[in-house]
Amino acid sequence: MNMGRVRNQKANVETCDFGASVRRKQVSAATMLGTVLLIAAAIIMAGCGGGSSSSSSSGTPAVTLSASSLTFSSGVNVASASQTVTITDSGTGTLSFSGFAVTPSTFTETNTCGTGIAAGSNCTVSVIFTPTAAGTASGSLTVTDNASGSPQTVTLSGSSTSVSVSPASLTLTPSSASQTVTLANAGSSSVAITSIAVTAGSSNFSESNNCGSSLAGGASCTITVKFTSSGSGTVTGTLTVTDAAGTQTVSLSGSSSVSNTAQVTVSFGPNGYQGAPAASSTSETISYYNDITTTVIVCEPGTTTCVTVPNVLVDTGSVGLRILSSALPGITLPAINDTSTGDPFYECVQYGDLSYTWGPMELATVQVGGETASQLPGTAANSGIPIQVISANTTAPEDIYSGPNSDYSAIINPCLALPGSDDEELSGGLDDDTVAALGDNGILGVGAFPQDCGAGCASLDSASGEYMICSSGTCGIQAIPVNDQASNPVTGFPVDNNGVLITLPMLPAAGAATATGTLTFGIGTESNNAITTQKVYELDDYGNFESSTYDGVQSTSSNSGGTFIDSGSNAFLVSDETTLNTTDCLVSGYDIGFYCPSSPPLTVSLQLAGSNNNTTTVSLSIGNALDLFSANTSFSAFGNLGEASCVPSTGSPCNASTDTWDLGLPFFFGRPIFVGIAGATTGTPNEANGYWAF
Questions:
Q1: Same domain, yes or no, for 263 and 350?
Q2: Is the same domain home to 280 and 211?
Q3: What is the pLDDT of residue 230?
Q4: pLDDT on residue 42
Q5: Which DSSP category does 272 fall into?
Q6: pLDDT given for residue 652 in this prediction
Q7: By the 8 A CB rule, do 174 and 194 touch?
Q8: CA distances from 365 to 156, 340, 484, 485, 533 (A)
Q9: Cα–Cα distance for residue pair 450/318, rounded to 1 Å
Q10: 161, 219, 464, 640: which sits with the fewest CB atoms below 10 Å from its CB?
Q11: What is the helix (H) or strand (E) element at residue 35, kind and residue range?
């Protein structure tokens, strides 16, 4: 369960409102304890539209096509492999496009060409053939442009049989050593099967199937392909099905080693640099510093229909994958419905900056680096894992029922309520349903739990209100099975599924333009993810350190907001300016939240203790944020940004024992950090509540 992961930012309204840019942790009233936790952050203001560009050119464009015809083959209702045509501007002027079209509708196209390309440049058009009936088909791809001879035409032809295999290719590794192929008969008559075998290539592949000697009309069967590692390198093979309708083949590729890493990049994120901090009486704007992201591939379960999603926040302080619906074009993911009512599950997640993500729970295959989560442990093969799809242009309902229907009382939606107000006061938090508001295309939560809510949400009596079912515009809180909750994608990996390691370089005190590091999956499962000299700190029941001590005052999860490590926070979100004897940054008299010590660096010595009694003392160095930002305006990565985690309010003062100590992304620079998932049984160590090691 994600508890007390808090960050905050101040809403910004200028000519247009791009909203919040940083992703914080899911907030829990249990961790607030009367303290209003407020953390300044990055507001993205982009001049209402991200700028514009214009160009002019002289000369004459010309078109060269890499192919004049494309030939496809596939089964009925099965999408073929994509084929591409490269368009090159071989002239001397800009080539402008006014249209791309394919006929008939069994052929579809996508392209990278936009509205035009410069002389000497090229772009690609990808075509897919999806036959709806057995036989042959012919068509054309037409490109309309400003070059001589426009429009240009590529001839398309396709053939199909009633019997098909899907997918058309498999890539297998030791951690994905067994995958399935579906053999389907779209016809109305039974088709005799002559043979199913690995007919070419490596003996490292083998197959088994439940197809029998014939396949009835409208039926399908499953072929399981197994890969046995060859020891080194990549091997290939072919699975061949011979039947009365013809011959179908599946290309096989097997790699003896899995890539259990993905690159992470620290930058300003997809919204880019938004200028120096500025303020008015109603708003502040700050670029999104220390945004750590990676690329995630999201697929329809059991298919090769996928979307590559760049700029996804890597967040060790939350659990589950959350992707903007706008980042998932062209795919349709299965909804997760409540079995008792048939209504779809929705999730509304509030973060420490009081913003929220709202959207349905859906099933997807998720790939990060060389690792793929096709299903959760104990669930059906290729059934996908639960993710939240953040709905665009749809706000969460303000009023919901405290139970699944109108038999229960009406309350304010907990993710829209001010924490600690007992669902009685709206927070005014922003809807993070766009890249401008969220700051990224999504959030990859790889924290220390298998699910974001766990057993507590599986019972209506203890449900926190994150999950609800909705019907005809009315929503109510509902218990949700553990396997339907937003799941840590790492737990769905076949082998490297017990945690992650994040490695980032040490930065100079002045910061850096960007920083590149590595997200490594698994702990103690491969040669590159072993705990060696690092000390292990078991987490408490809240997912925090057992305690932290500053200046002789101890903070625990039961008396404060807790102490935790959190890559999704872009600064050290620690204590308050009075306790640390420092000052917040002021721009035009307004507090932007970052610390600006008058004599930097401010050094904070913090003692940390795990539930397993391991202790250490860390030194946090905090610079003057405004000085850092102004010295190098192109720099996005800083290892010494600090922010207040508590702003006092009437009746809720801040002090060292009740403040939150959020060790954000600056804590990771030059300090490799392991995050062990609670309850994992592979690798070492095995801590019941999960752990951090550094």
A1: yes
A2: no
A3: 57
A4: 31
A5: -
A6: 75
A7: no
A8: 31, 25, 14, 15, 35
A9: 10
A10: 219
A11: none
Amino acid at the residue 362:
E
Q: Which residues contact 501 (CB under 8 A, 6 or more apart)?
A: 518, 519, 520, 523, 529, 672, 673, 674, 675
Question: Of how many residues is the chain composed?
Answer: 694
| CA–CA gap between residue 676 and residue 532 (Å, rounded) | 14
Task: Give percent above pLDDT 70 in the chain.
Answer: 88
Structure tokens at 641: 């940004």
Spatial separation of the C-alpha atoms in residues 73 and 71, rounded to whole Å: 7
Q: Quick check: is 371 in a domain? A: yes
Evaluate if residue 56 carries a pLDDT over 50. Answer: no
Tokens of 154: 């590529």
Residues 146 and 170 in one domain: no
Q: Is the pLDDT of residue 129 over 70?
A: yes
Residue of 540, 547, 561 whose CA lies nearest to 419 = 561
**pTM for the predicted model, two decimal places:** 0.68
The two three-digit tokens of residue 667, written as one number: 């804590």
Residue among 192, 179, 183 nearest 237 (CA) = 179
Identify the DSSP state of 281: S
Residue 20 counted as domain residue = no
How many other β-carbons are positioned within 10 Å of the β-carbon of residue 370?
Answer: 19
* Token couple for 208: 């088994």
Q: What is the pLDDT of residue 616?
A: 97
**421 and 481 co-located in one domain:** yes
- Detail the DSSP E strand segments found in 557-690: 563-565, 572-574, 584-587, 590-595, 602-609, 615-622, 642-643, 661-663, 673-676
Q: Does the CA dihedral 676-679-680-683 come out positive or negative?
A: positive
Check whether residue 131 and residue 180 sit in a common domain: no
Pairing verdict, β 234-243 and 220-227: unpaired
- The whole-angstrom separation of Cα 563 and Cα 205 is 49
CA distances from 353 to 5, 35, 345, 418, 430 (A): 10, 14, 24, 11, 9
Cα–Cα distance list, 43 to 104, 287, 379, 503 (Å): 47, 6, 41, 27
Give yes or no: residues 319 and 440 share one domain: yes
503, 521 Cβ separation under 8 angstroms: no
On whether residue 661 sits in a domain, the answer given is yes
In whole angstroms, give the CA distance from residue 182 to residue 194.
16
Tokens of 574: 């620690």
Residue 587 lies in a domain: yes
Total domains in the chain come to: 4
Backbone φ/ψ region at 49: left (φ over 0), alpha (ψ -120 to 50), beta: left
Range of the domain at 668: 500-693
Claim to verify: residue 268 and residue 393 sit in the same structural domain: yes
pLDDT for the residue 16: 24
Rounded CA gap, 328 and 365, in Å?
13
Q: Write down the pLDDT at residue 18.
A: 22
> Average pLDDT of the chain?
86
Which residue, of 159, 176, 195, is where some domain finishes? 159
Amino acid letter, residue 643: E
The CATH number of whichever domain residue 228 belongs to comes to 2.60.40.10
Domain ends where: 465, 492, 519?
Answer: 492
Whether the per-residue pLDDT at 430 is higher than 60: the answer is yes
Residue 275: left if φ>0, alpha if ψ -120 to 50, beta else—which one?
A: left
DSSP-assigned letter for residue 40: -
Answer for the pair 637, 266: CB distance below 8 angstroms, yes or no: yes
Write the Ramachandran bin of 636: left for phi over 0, alpha for psi from -120 to 50, otherwise beta. alpha
Q: How far apart are the first and last CA of the chain?
A: 22
Q: 249 and 265 share a domain?
A: no
Dist. CA 563–CA 47, nearest whole Å = 37
628 contacts 508 by C-beta, under 8 angstroms: no
- In DSSP terms, which residues pair with 284 in a beta bridge? 279
